[in-house]
């Protein structure tokens, strides 16, 4: 039996967890991931109150993902123990710790059903709530021609209609968008609703050409976006 097989059988991985607790306060804490699998894990030693259905961010090493809490129970140490499932399309932070057997036998792990592949790159853009028309500069952390995700402690409400501006090489693109997912303390998922099929195809090809060390930009030149807050 290899060392990796032993580690995979009874893992105890240090992770960072963040989001919004039941009392409406943002939290960021150290915890432990146990019973890991490709589609999720059990997170122990949580000090805040969470509910099934809540979305939290989880980071192990340099890899992070968004997860939905499927169950919560009190542990003997007085802290919480929560089972989490990776959201569709999210990479598994502890994939390097899994054995081939664990990957093959996980019935929940499925491939993303998105039409366009999302890229884990930083991409700068400007967004404005159409009701107030005050633009904010944001940085998407994963993006495709269909939409993007913006990490922010204070996301806008689901259903909010946005104007979205970004640059495709030297061409400024303006489109409409709508917030499809609000994850308090974590971020918001945005669907681009005004791109023509031709622009979508060009935009996806542009994203596909970028590597992880390259970002888009929200204005001419190498502009620096601020995270939404």
Description:
By secondary structure, the protein is mainly beta. The chain has 2 domains: 3-105, predicted glycosyltransferase like domains (Thrombin, subunit H, Beta Barrel); 123-209, Thrombin, subunit H. It is 11% helix and 44% strand. It has 3 helices and 12 strands. It has helices at residues 3-9, 100-105, 197-209; strands spanning 13-20, 26-37, 40-46, 55-60, 63-74, 80-86, 123-129, 135-143, 147-151, 161-168, 171-183, 187-192. The strands form 2 sheets. It has a 6-stranded antiparallel barrel. The chain has a 6-stranded antiparallel beta barrel with strand order 7-8-9-12-11-10. The N and C termini lie far apart (49 Å). Mean pLDDT is 84; it is low at 1-9 and 217-229.
Assigned CATH class of the largest domain: Mainly Beta
Report the oligomer.
single chain
Strand element count: 12
Q: How many domains would you count in the coordinates?
A: 2
What are the secondary-structure elements, in order, as H or E?
HEEEEEEHEEEEEEH
- CATH homologous superfamily descriptor of the largest domain: predicted glycosyltransferase like domains
CATH architecture identity of the largest domain: Beta Barrel
Q: Can you tell me the residue ranges where pLDDT is under 50 for at least 5 consecutive residues? A: 1-9, 217-229
Share of helix, binned: 10-25%
**How many helical stretches?**
3
CATH topology of the largest domain: Thrombin, subunit H
* Silhouette: globular
């Amino acid at each position: 039996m290899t060392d990796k097989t032993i580690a995979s059988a009874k893992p105890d991985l240090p992770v960072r967890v963040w989001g919004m607790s039941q009392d409406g306060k943002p939290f960021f804490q150290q915890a432990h991931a146990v019973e890991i699998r490709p589609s999720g894990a059990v997170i122990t030693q949580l000090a805040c109150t969470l509910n099934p259905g809540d979305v939290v961010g989880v980071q192990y090493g340099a890899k992070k993902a968004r997860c939905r809490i499927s169950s919560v129970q009190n542990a003997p140490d007085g802290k919480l123990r929560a089972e989490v499932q990776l959201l569709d399309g999210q990479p598994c932070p502890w994939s390097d710790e899994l054995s081939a057997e664990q990957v093959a036998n996980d019935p929940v792990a499925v491939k993303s059903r998105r039409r366009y592949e999302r890229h884990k790159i930083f991409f700068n853009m400007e967004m404005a709530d159409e009701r107030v028309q005050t633009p904010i500069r944001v940085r998407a952390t994963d993006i495709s021609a269909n939409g993007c995700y913006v990490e922010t402690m204070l996301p806008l409400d689901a259903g909010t209609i946005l104007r979205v501006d970004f640059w495709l090489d030297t061409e400024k693109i303006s489109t409409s968008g709508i917030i499809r997912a609000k994850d308090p303390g974590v971020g918001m998922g945005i669907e681009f609703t005004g791109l023509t099929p031709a622009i979508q195809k060009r935009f996806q090809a542009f994203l596909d050409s970028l590597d992880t060390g390259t970002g888009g930009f929200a204005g001419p030149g190498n502009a620096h976006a601020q995270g939404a807050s």
